[in-house]
Design a protein that fits this description.
The structure holds 2 protein chains of 2 kinds. Chain A is mainly beta. Helices cover about 0% and strands about 50% of the residues of chain A. Chain A is globular, with a radius of gyration of 13 Å. Chain A starts with a strand and ends with a strand. The model of chain A has no long low-confidence stretch (mean pLDDT about 95). The chains are: A mainly beta, B mainly beta. At the A-B interface, strand 4, strand 5, strand 9 and strand 10 of A face strand 5, strand 10 and strand 11 of B.
């Protein structure tokens, strides 16, 4: 069964460093998402991406964040200058083509980011 | 406003007991989707069920059952004869169309279920 994959599974970085979290969505999916879950809290929407551009972003998704689909298969989240409060689990998700339950998102296993 | 409320922060039960996790949602949309996910200690989100706003039939899958009531905006989840392996955090989520035309999930705060042997 096709699945969303994410790399790395864990990342430790120093405050102020740039990190790139990578995701490979399900092939042929058209909608892509990033969510964030701070330890012990709920999962929060960050950004949605469709047709090679951001569809919607939350208040959390400030200028430090960017997303890209560089090669038609990967979907990346970049944090330019990490802060301590960026420490969280980051989930990538993708959703299907029109008429194929586009409201159902398939989640990757997450990347646990720790900023020291 | 779109919102999901899971009022139960943590529930502890003894193995073989039945347990119900509550979920109340708010949305002005007439078309929406509701989900339950299980998050074990390893951290991934495990899909349990999807329900659309036009289908109010209750569903049973093995020891799991779901009660969807539009009149009270609730989508409750019951585990029958709980087992230690059911211990996890359970999230209820609402999927609605955003202004951009894409969907996004709004999660509740989760309920931590501890099943004691």
């Amino acid at each position: 069964e096709p699945e969303v994959t994410q790399t790395p599974s864990h990342q430790v970085t120093q405050m102020g460093q740039e990190v790139i979290l990578r995701c490979v969505p399900i092939s042929n999916h058209l909608y892509f998402y990033w969510y964030r879950q701070i330890l012990g809290q709920k999962v929060e929407f960050l950004v949605s991406f469709y047709n090679n551009e951001i569809s919607e972003k939350s208040e959390i998704f400030d200028d430090q964040f960017s997303v890209e689909r560089p090669d038609g298969s990967n979907f990346t989240l970049k944090i330019r200058s990490t802060k301590l409060e960026d420490s969280a689990m980051y989930f990538c998700a993708s959703a299907g083509t029109s008429g194929e339950f586009v409201e159902t998102q398939y989640f990757g296993p997450g990347t646990r980011l720790l900023v020291l | 406003a779109q919102k999901v409320t899971q009022a139960q922060t943590e529930i502890s039960v003894v193995e073989k007991e039945d347990v119900t996790l509550d979920c109340v949602y708010e949305t002005r949309d007439t078309t929406y989707y509701l989900f339950w996910y299980k998050q074990p200690p390893s951290g991934e989100l495990v899909f349990l069920i999807r329900r659309n706003s036009f289908d109010e039939q209750n569903e049973i899958s093995g020891r799991y059952s779901w009660n969807f009531q539009k009149s009270t905006s609730s989508f409750n989840f019951t585990i029958t004869a709980s087992q230690v392996v059911d211990s996890a955090v359970y999230f209820c989520a609402l999927s609605v169309v955003s202004t951009s035309g894409t969907y996004k999930y709004i999660f509740g705060t989760g309920t931590r279920l501890k099943v004691l042997a």
